[in-house]
Amino acid sequence: MTNKQPVNKEAAAISAEQTERLKELFPQIVTEGKIDFDKLREALGDEVDSRPERYSFSWAGKRDAIRLLQTPSRATLVPAKKESINFDETNNIFIEGDNLEVLKLLYKSYFGRVKMIYIDPPYNTGNDFVYPDNFADPLDTYLKLTGQKTAEGNLLTSNPETSGRYHSAWLSMMYPRLFIARQLLREDGLIFVSIDDIELHNLRMLMNEIFGEENFLAQITWKNVYGGGSKSKHVVNQSEYVLLFARNREAVGVLELPPDPEARKRYTEKDDKHPTRGLYFTQPLATTSMDFRQNLRFPIMWKGNEIWPEKQWQWSKERVEKALANDELVFKNDNGKWSVRYKQYLHDEDGTERSAKLYSVFNGPWTQEGTAEIAEYFGDGKIFPFPKPTKLIKQLISCIWQEQDAIVLDFFAGSCPTAQAVYELSRENPGSCRFIMVQLPESTPEDSPARKAGYKTIADIGKERVRRVIAKLKKDKDGKLDLKNGDKAEDLGFKVFKLAESNYKPWTGPEKKDSDAYAEQMAAFTDPFVPSWKPENVIWEVTIKEGYGLNSEIIHMTGIKENSVYHVTDPDKGQSFRICLDEVLKPVALRALALGKNDLFICRDKAMTDELVANLALQCRLKTI
User: Fold this and answer.
1) What are phi and psi of 582, to 5 degrees?
2) Is 245 helix (H, G, I), strand (E, B) or coil?
3) Is the CA virtual torsion 60, 64, 69, 70 positive or negative?
4) Contacts by 20-26, CB closer than 8 A, 24 or more apart
5) How far apart (Å, rounded) are the C-alpha atoms in residues 586 and 561?
6) N or C: which terminus of the chain has fewer CB atoms within 10 Å of its end residue's CB?
7) Which CATH code, of 3.40.50.150, 3.40.47.40, 3.40.50.360, 3.40.50.880, is assigned to 65-153+171-258+355-499?
8) CA-to-CA distance for 550 and 539, rounded, in angstroms?
9) Could you give phi then psi for residue 568, rounded to 5 degrees?
10) How many angstroms separate the Cα of 316 from the Cα of each of 283, 293, 295, 300, 309?
11) What is the pTM of this model?
């Protein structure tokens, strides 16, 4: 019996992973390797609602959506270096493919690692599109839709309002994607979802179920249109919404925005008594708040005068006395009527520059600004309809501006305004964040401005926008000395991956009871790879399915001559493995590797003799393909 294990040939099954976590929390619920739900109810005690009638959110097709979520992906991601910029150096990632399949592939590598998610999903207007998920074979559906197999299916299916499952189809599309998205978030992670009136209520209910209504943080109203209304029949609609949820509300601190250069202009007064706090301006200490509190109504004594507020002060008596002692109040006499103002300093007492909080109402930016950006980069604003303005997404990402190396994920990337927002914010604060963009290669309409300009898919538009944003940022920086950011390197690159069929042969053979057919199928499996396999693609598939990230470094160990061995390292996780795909593994090469007990080595199962397997399994952690 050797300590040898097979590599993972499928992405981690979400249900299996969740079951393992449940077993860790409640080991007493496991009976003969399976969960005993009676014991689970017993362990949870009063937390279980056993009443026959209870509040719930359901729709036609929800069960199929859950089954789709539980279906492991048999796809892989292959690198597209020619479409990338600085592939080996950059930490920014663009993935072309169905976002559900991609999220399943990212699950093991990025579980609990993403700081922020922003998505702008289809609004279900009846004219946009819904991903035609097939829980029986999602990868096969994707390959047909993208022309990698037969063209029997349509690229996408519209969801007209006359459909009996108008809202249900949209909810079934969103459920599994949001479910996995939550698993990818850090404990203090945030998710922002753009939406309009059509599905706002359903989205809120759906996110309450997935994230927990206790983790709801805000419904941001975004006034995105100015003027107009001539076509409105009843009410002029000038706004959309952004729902904000946390993975764990208790782990999230105050959402502060970075100092605003425009706001700094208000600070004009100098205070020699508090030089570390910088300039200041004054604001009224009195308030007319509707919420009256008796302890905030008291007189302030100044030069023999007793000054009362019309209603109440903003501060308590103790806070006012401290401000008086620190000379933080300014008194003014206007025709015998005294008023009190307090000094609003640019910096806090510890020297940190003041910042604003995130508000629940955004007055702009306007939708037209997003179209203007497309026109700026492509010469025609009609290349991509109704893109979100970069400024909107920058406002949202800005609330994590103090982070370092935070991952921002957008799996409905469209024309990639989120990527542009990350680049622009990273210029202001290098190293603060990096992105993962995911976009389906949805075909652009025939005769559309995009198709006429040579863009066959929306993914093509997104990638090209990223390239042009990078080019503009490089041009803007050329010849300028960056004194503010010092030696911090700016990451102006992105690596492209594409969803593809696995490099492993799928098992489609008969059961063992049909001995002849089974033996014939096993003979065909002497080589585990499909005929068109490439070493680099196999290594990336192993990397992803073993839980290593897409910024892993793959180095060919050229010092070993007897076999072709690669060293794969994930710098984010601090873990690595070595892999050899040769048909025969030579002992002299293994001796040169000097593998230890904690080292992971992966090779073909048929590449070793039984003796070599036994020795190697004692020497290191061994996995075979």
Assistant:
1) -65, 155
2) strand
3) positive
4) none
5) 10
6) N
7) 3.40.50.150
8) 12
9) -110, 125
10) 16, 10, 7, 11, 13
11) 0.84
Length of the chain: 625
Instruction: Give domain limits for the chain.
Output: 65-153+171-258+355-499, 261-345, 510-624
| Cα-Cα-Cα-Cα dihedral sign, residues 159, 164, 167, 168 | negative
SS3 of 185-208: the string is EEEEEEEEEEECCCCHHHHHHHHH
Placement of tokens 């169905």 in the chain: 98
Q: Is the peptide bond before 365 cis (omega within 30 degrees of 0)?
A: yes
Exposure string (b/e) for 202-240, b if CB count within 10 Å is 16 or more? bbbbbbbbbbeeebbbeebbbebbeeeeeeeeeeeebeb
Sequence-distant (6+) residues with CB within 8 A of 462 are 94, 413, 414, 415, 416, 419, 437, 439
Instruction: Tell me whether strands 406-410 and 114-119 are parallel, antiparallel or unpaired.
Output: parallel
Residue located via tokens 């991956």: 497
Query: What's the gap between Cα 160 and its chain centre?
Result: 29
pLDDT of the residue at 263: 77
The C-alpha angle 252, 224, 427, rounded to 5 degrees, equals: 55
Q: What element of type H or E holds 6? A: strand 4-6
423, amino acid identity:
Y
SS (H, E, C) 72-133: CCCEEEEECHHHCECCCCCCCEEEECCHHHHHHHHHHHHCCCEEEEEECCCCCCCCCEECCC
- For tokens 């680049």, the residue is 423
* Per-position DSSP letters for 303-336, written without gaps between them: TTEEE--SSEESS-HHHHHHHHHTT-EEEEEETT
Give pLDDT, residue 482.
56
Q: What is the mean pLDDT for each group of 10 consecutive residues in the chain (625 residues)?
A: 80 75 73 73 66 79 91 95 97 97 97 98 76 64 61 56 76 96 98 96 97 97 83 84 97 85 84 88 86 89 92 93 93 91 88 83 94 96 95 95 92 98 92 94 94 97 98 84 58 98 81 59 72 96 98 96 97 96 94 94 94 91 95
Placement of tokens 């698993």 in the chain: 183
Please say whether the beta carbons of 287 and 311 come within 8 A. yes
Q: To the nearest 10°, report the CA torsion of 143, 146, 149, 155.
A: 100
Report the alpha-carbon distance of residue 377 to residue 375 in Å, rounded: 6
The distance in angstroms from the start CA to the end CA of the chain is 18
